[in-house]
Amino acid sequence: MYDAVIVGAGHNGLVCACYLAKAGLKVRMLERRSVVGGAAATEEFHPGFRNSVAAYTVSLLQPKIIRDLNLAGHGLRIVERPLSNFLPLAERGYLKVGGGAEATQREVAKFSARDAQRLPAYWAMVERVADVLRDLILRTPPNVGGGVADALAALKLGMRLRRLDMEARRDLLDFFAKSAADMLDHWFESDGIKAAFGFDAVVGNYASPYGAGTAYVLLHHNFGEVNGKRGVWGHAIGGMGAISDALAAEARRLGVEITCDAAVARIGLRDGRARLAVLADGTEIAGRAVIANVNPKLLYLGMVEERQLPPEFVERMRAYKCASASFRMNVALAELPRFTCLPEPGPHHAAGIIFAPSLAYMERAYFDARTHGMARAPIVEMVIASTLDATLAPPGKHVASLFCQHFDPSMDWAARRGEAIARIFDVVEAQAPGFKASIIAHTALSPADLEREFGLIGGDIFHGALTLDQLYAARPLLGYADYRGPLRGLYHAGAGAHPGGGVTGAPGHNCAREVLEDFRRRIL
């Protein structure tokens, strides 16, 4: 028998495995796909062209995890983008964000001197609130209705919040209660800068930027850093799979057994405790703890027998919200796109290129999807990673990641996939004539494909919507925020637990700590 059996070798599962093995536990990992990494993998999609398959950019990966697990020693190298974002706004208009505060202020001043002046105060406000989030990322949330330890954790949180001045408390409340658009409309008057910041509020979020709670999703994308620089986005050389490969190398060094092509069909019980991961062929792998790095809805409604769970828990899991309305593409290009507003090659090609010039554009995309199943003019972010990483494409050629919103997960995507692809390409072509002619090959993952390939229910890249009722002590469900579920011996290590989605490694890190605590207390 193993000390721990981990279902799913995505990046969070690998992080969890490493920390458990470092503590001396015997760990076995079971992965349904033929490679590790889950959505954070790099694959060749056309001869000579490789790219990140689903997850596509780096910022939220916790520095502590990078250090603790010696990921640099296993070859991980992350480089920062020279610009955070580039937005084509009109035939001759564009906005570049990043490259330093003064550079961004100069760009914004082209549209509004007032907005340029307000930027430093806005950034300071976001940082002040993001610091609160950073302080909570690697902590286990208190369980409502729990014991003394949970009460103490809640008290510590209260004391942390009391140290904030009143204005910071108001800002914190705004981020959790308001829409991103309401906040941005308060701060700025020009469409471009509101769109640049507002895009973070709809990434993986099936919502209008005017929807209540979207301000938190904006905040969620702003607690990261690259190589010690806060608020910066970057690229892992070799693609996102380089992160997973480095984690797997460290796991194997520590003695973790990783088995791919091993689909777990269900979680089995012995003596009333989760002890077995049962493969599709009936093979049983036993462990003193079973750790699930899968979406909670997939776990409890697909891998655990309903009769083994409290009825009210099952009912709540059925209502657990999963839908990010995302459509993910990889494109092999014969040449760099030539934007009408800025045609020559430059740092803007290495930025996150956002095709969504205003909050109103984003809102229309959302309502189109609600009404017609997909946006008539989708929100598109293009990242041309080959501008920073020559390992991804042949000389002179490029690969682009296209991350697109909004595409209703309930649609029949087998029938409408081609229509969606055409609409996405049309959005890029309108700003970069000749883009479609430069395409050598492409792949596409609809919400249904994301669910089938990676277990992302509803295509949800966050393993559950980042709404107030599914955050912190309520993630995945109030009373089960400590990485444990209603079945003894069964733990959550995936993004369906605090702090949620993105390539952070934090859920895996925190889950490992709780598992080790239960081993220390000898209750496993």
Q: Please, could you describe this protein's structure?
A:
Helix 1 runs parallel beside helix 10, helix 7 packs antiparallel against helix 8 and helix 7 packs across helix 9. Strands 1, 2, 11, 12, 13, 14 and 20 form a 7-stranded mixed beta sheet that branches. Strands 7-6-16-17-18-15-19 form a 7-stranded mixed beta sheet, sandwiched between helices. It has a two-stranded antiparallel ribbon with strand order 3-4. The protein is of the alpha/beta class and about 525 residues long. The two termini are about 15 Å apart. The protein contains 16 helices and 20 strands. The model has no long low-confidence stretch (mean pLDDT about 95). It folds into 2 domains: about 200 residues, 3-Layer(bba) Sandwich (FAD/NAD(P)-binding domain), CATH 3.50.50; about 290 residues.
What's the short story on this structure?
The protein has 524 residues and is α/β, with parallel strands linked by helices.
